[in-house]
Write a structure and sequence with these properties.
Blueprint: E1 2-8, H1 19-32, E2 35-41, H2 47-57, E3 62-67, H3 69-79, E4 85-90, H4 96-101, H5 107-113, E5 118-130, E6 142-147, E7 150-154, H6 155-162, H7 165-171, H8 173-184, E8 192-197, E9 202-208, E10 210-214, E11 236-241, H9 246-257, E12 267-272, E13 274-279, E14 287-290, E15 293-297, E16 300-313, H10 315-320
């Protein structure tokens, strides 16, 4: 019998009170298919990555994760670089990667289907940024993290920064929407500059107040900010919103909902392999988030890392993306 470790977040998603029963049923379904599962419950934010690293040190080759996009992000940062295979049992609120791969949103149904999924080496996004207060410009050390689907720079990361954990737990996606409206009426929308290298761009600079750097077409679970993004190809789609006007942000919101935002003169979508972002005013603090979780502040460099992770995906999804 093959073995696997299932790392799960007991409080992720809309129905955390059912999580333990779902996990037990998922483990039973996997055992019936020949996969003996060791359960590993996270104890708080930031613990899933360390748990994944420990499993790799134990020579575990199949790591499963049940939780939201943030928990999945932590786990991939515990696996990369490495050869362990990741399988996802969706259990979060937005579930961007689950939607992208066409996975069942019920973890038990996903466990029933998982034995038929196939491994595929995929690209990841990687961001590096200076450690705050560490040394001079010449010898400054850096932080580094990988992301699977989306990074947001500027306004949306500020919303995540201001959003309380309790509010998020109580309302899920609705909490993000409410906080975004509140911050749209208060935020100063500082400008940052993105220097882009890509298939058709080398060193071109763009100014924006909000940008998404996407490996998936979906943002926030259901908004299509980057149509045409191709998850199984090693590239980013960079969507830039350029205005500093609070009123204009409500126009952006309406246009995004109508899938007409790319018709606006101050919204632009470009392909990229590498994006370097820095505040136009070095005194301004501008945040960025990775897969829905606050990560750090600019300046930061975002790069595509080809074939960085082995991921299980439904065979039909792999065939359609060839």
């Amino acid at each position: 019998m093959k073995t696997a470790t299932l790392i799960y977040n007991p409080i992720a998603g809309r129905r955390p009170e059912r999580r333990e029963k779902e996990i037990e049923d998922a483990a039973t379904a996997l055992a019936a298919s020949g996969i003996k599962v060791r359960l590993a419950q996270t104890s708080g934010p930031g613990t899933a990555g360390q748990m994944a690293r420990e499993e790799v040190r134990r020579s575990e080759t199949l790591i499963l994760v049940c939780g939201g996009d943030g928990t999945i992000n932590e786990v991939i940062n515990g696996l990369v670089p490495g050869e362990a295979t990741l399988g996802i049992l969706p259990g979060g609120t937005a579930n961007i990667i689950a939607k992208e791969l066409g996975l069942p949103h019920d973890p038990v149904r996903a466990a029933l289907e998982l034995p038929g999924w196939r491994p595929r080496r995929i690209a990841l996004g990687r961001v590096t940024w200076p450690v705050a207060g560490a040394g001079s410009v010449q010898d400054r050390s850096v932080d580094q993290r990988y992301f699977l689907s989306v990074s947001g720079v500027g306004f949306d990361a500020y919303v995540v920064y201001k959003l309380s954990a309790a509010f998020k737990m109580s309302l899920g996606v609705a909490a993000y929407v409410a906080e975004a409206v509140r911050q749209a009426l208060r935020h100063s929308f500082p400008v940052f500059v993105c220097k882009v290298d890509g298939p058709q761009l080398q060193g071109r600079e763009f100014r924006a107040t909000f940008a998404t750097i996407q490996r998936t077409g979906l943002y926030a679970g259901w908004l299509r900010l980057a149509p045409g993004a191709r998850f199984f190809e090693p590239q980013f789609r960079l969507c830039l919103f350029k205005s500093r006007s609070r009123a204009r942000y409500f126009v952006y919101a309406a246009a995004v909902l109508a899938r007409q935002h790319l018709r606006l003169s101050d919204v632009e979508l470009v392909e990229a392999q590498r994006v370097c972002c820095a505040a136009a005013d070095p005194e301004q603090r501008i945040h960025f988030e990775l897969d829905g979780e606050l990560a750090g502040e600019l300046p930061a460099t975002f790069e595509v890392v080809p074939e960085a992770l082995t991921l299980l995906a439904p065979e039909e999804k792999l065939e359609t993306r060839k």
